[in-house]
DNA sequence: AATAATTATAACCTTTTGGTAAGTACTATA
DNA sequence: TATAGTACTTACCAAAAGGTTATAATTATT
């Protein structure tokens, strides 16, 4: 009988943790998802909410998230511009991850 | 009445998500925690399990994790060397995060 | 003697990531 | 006429992260 009753499969290309991280790693990604959360948020609101992020990174990340179907974008064709972001069905499914990150931070770090 | 019933505080230095990420972001960190999981794992086992990681990154991450008290290290003074790693109490508390990452990957990506 | 096994360490280099600063477009307002 | 507000874009640069290769130490095995 082995010591390790619960044996993890190796962490290769098919590893689900690796797959998730390839999408969600990055300095700002999960913080942006956390801020959008279940709300409808404008670009400018996000910029203020995610303290310290540069405009370049913010739209770069938003574009990436839209491309990967985690976030949907709605542009009103007005002047001045108005663009709203929200989580898609798929994006909402990342919230449990974000919640666990928040809980861990709250209970052990902050 | 506002549209957003659930208002998130801004994501500044005190943001718990940010705090967690400052510890756990990085290409390999969460995968290593995932592999160690509830087991006692030797360095060489980890190297094989976390496919593609370089030795440099593996010990660098392990040292970081030990320093931050997420992982404990037990060295047997034998030849050839034998070193075992396991999660501390604090480290075990990251497993819900890892589990959510795994679940998201499993259900939506892999 | 030489090789294998194990857990590292160090020097060097490349790639990735992120930051800075400036500019665009259009209108309302002062 | 100048400024402010909004959502971007681009070019350039700096820093962080990660990869490669070589090396160490010690013993058992071949």
TrEMBL record, chains A, B:
One annotated GO molecular function: DNA binding
UniProt-listed SUPFAM superfamilies: Winged helix' DNA-binding domain
Keywords per UniProt: DNA-binding, Transcription, Transcription regulation
Origin species: Dyadobacter luteus
Keyword set includes DNA-binding: yes
Entry-linked PROSITE patterns: HTH_HXLR (PS51118)
UniProt key word Transcription: yes
Name this polypeptide is given: Transcriptional regulator
Residue ranges occupied by any HTH hxlR-type domain in the UniProt entry: 15-110
